[in-house]
């Protein structure tokens, strides 16, 4: 029944491979359960209140709700879209909601804007507009998007592991380790996990990525138990030799009772009594554009990596996949945890062999269990999970051979797309730069007829996005 429903054999996979892939995807993105509360849970709104309307942060409720919504939506993606793609609260979007929107209104008003953005993007899917834009992008630009995301997630892995860090001063924004030097046991765990993963993959061991994550976590627990390293930031002091988000130690309690008290804490149109209509529209537009094209990039990358993309650059059940992702934006706002979106970390599960929605169902079930087992998830440190992102980044980078570097109308936009995603730490910026430069170069070449009208429209919208700061200043 599973094979027939999810087309497992048809896509050259097995049930075991799908389940392993689902576990790997979960391990590489479970950090969001701990990280989202720190981003939106510790910020106050314009009324001086924390999320949920209280005078004190409720991090446990945000963590449990983050896991709940991620679980439900990821299962929905698996069942409806039959695509190995997991969803959760969007990083970057949650920061924008917390810092850029909630600071000017109440949390309920801010989440109402997120719901509005989700409604609009759902309408765009149902009318076929989002799918049409997806198909209007040239196939080679889709390859460039996939390659750029590969570099981006590799950089995410290196930064989260502490192998690459911000300098904080000077002309160079990042450096190796702490001031140009690799320090601390966590880096040793990262290097051990990375080389173990490489070795297992070279030997073609099934479950290489999952095995490496589990073994590296065991090593991390042993090191923390022996040396009592602690976190790299405890709220007051910075320890450059400390662990990233999670300190790997076995919890005293494995099961906890989830708190879903923040569900439904949103006001659909309340924001327009606090800010101008134009300002509200710009907020929604910024959310919409980022959500729209982050997903286009992610779906394209996962499609290429899984080998499911067709000659036109489309993935199976494309409209259903985009529909579930659009519903996720609404669901995230309605649940008060910010917009939910597709996660590029799903590529780690695809690298393990996932090809169908069964992997997503597996990941979703693990997220639902996390609402009760959140202490257990906190055992896995960044340093044990992030080698998977580096390896998958390499796998996605291999697609670069499919680009025609002799055609400047493709080569230059592809180059800008690839480098700007990691350099700006933003998928949408890379996509936008690629689209705009493609239109400009084709115009210079006198080949304007080759540019799809929808791509021309979207490039114009991206110019508005890039110039949003001066536009905001102009309209006050």
Outline:
With 476 residues, this protein is an all-alpha fold. Helices cover 62% and strands 3% of the residues. The mean pLDDT is 89.
Describe this structure in words.
Helices cover 62% and strands 3% of the residues. It has one domain (2-475). The longest helix is centred in the middle third of the chain and has 30 residues, at 277-306. The strands form two sheets. Strands 1-4 form a two-stranded antiparallel ribbon. The protein is mainly alpha-helical. Helix 8 packs antiparallel against helix 18 (427-444). The protein has 20 helices and four strands. The model has no long low-confidence stretch (mean pLDDT 89).
Produce the secondary structure layout.
Elements lengths: L1 H5 L8 H15 L1 H10 L18 H23 L5 E3 L3 H9 L5 H20 L2 H8 L2 H23 L2 E3 L7 E3 L8 H18 L5 H20 L49 H30 L11 H17 L5 E3 L3 H6 L5 H21 L4 H4 L1 H11 L10 H17 L2 H18 L8 H14 L1 H8 L1
Antiparallel strand pairs: 1-4, 2-3
Helix pairs in contact: 2-14, 3-4, 4-12, 4-14, 6-11, 6-12, 8-11, 8-16, 8-17, 8-18, 9-10, 9-16, 11-12, 11-18, 17-18, 18-19
